Amino acid sequence: MKILVLVDGSKWSQKAALHAFAVAKSKGAKVVLFSVLDRREARAIAFHASVRSGSLEEIKRFEETLWEENKRSIKDLLTTLLELGQREGVNCAFKIVEGPAKDRILEEANSGYSLVVMGAYGKSGKTRIGSLLEEVVGHIEPPVMIVR
Question: Which residues lie across from 146 on neighbouring strands?
Fold first, then answer.
């Protein structure tokens, strides 16, 4: 049995990982902590910050700084969660991919997992139509556990 945990850096995804560890421990399952980095998010944040500061020449540099910071931050979080899972006796690994979140999540989730675990809310805290949860949950083939 393999369990996929979608981790976006939010407290909700961290709670999802803890629940996945508990299930994995009771079932002897492997947990894969999975995160998608989308460069479009860094680009949009850089653009808006540059517009506000009045320095459009700095967009590319700011985007690269944000991109590297996001990669480092998610890798640090996944490493921390991985170590926590291993201390609990859970066989786990992590995987970071780049690209559009919806597409990469669906590719991974539908590639042989027995369960997908995700937080009810993401980094943005969106609860409206169009949030990532609502975009992907109906297209994921294995059962999905949503943690609040």
Answer: 118
Taking each helix axis as running N to C, give the angle between helix 39-53 and helix 59-87, from 0 to 180 degrees, rounded to the nearest 10. Answer: 130
Segment 45-54 long-range contacts (CB within 8 Å, at least 24 positions apart)? none
Residue 114 to residues 24, 43, 49, 70: CA-CA distances in angstroms? Answer: 11, 35, 41, 29
CA triple 78-115-118, angle to 5 deg: 50
Q: Residue 63's Cα: distance from chain center in Å?
A: 20
Q: What is the pLDDT of residues 51-84, one digit of tens each?
A: 766 676 677 788 888 899 999 999 999 999 999 9
Q: Which two tokens stand for residue 115?
A: 């369960």
31-58 pLDDT per residue, tens: 999 999 988 887 787 777 777 666 766 7
> 118 pairs with which residues across the strands?
146
CA atoms of 89 and 128, how far apart (whole Å): 37
State the chain's maximal CA–CA distance in angstroms: 55
pTM score, whole prediction: 0.88
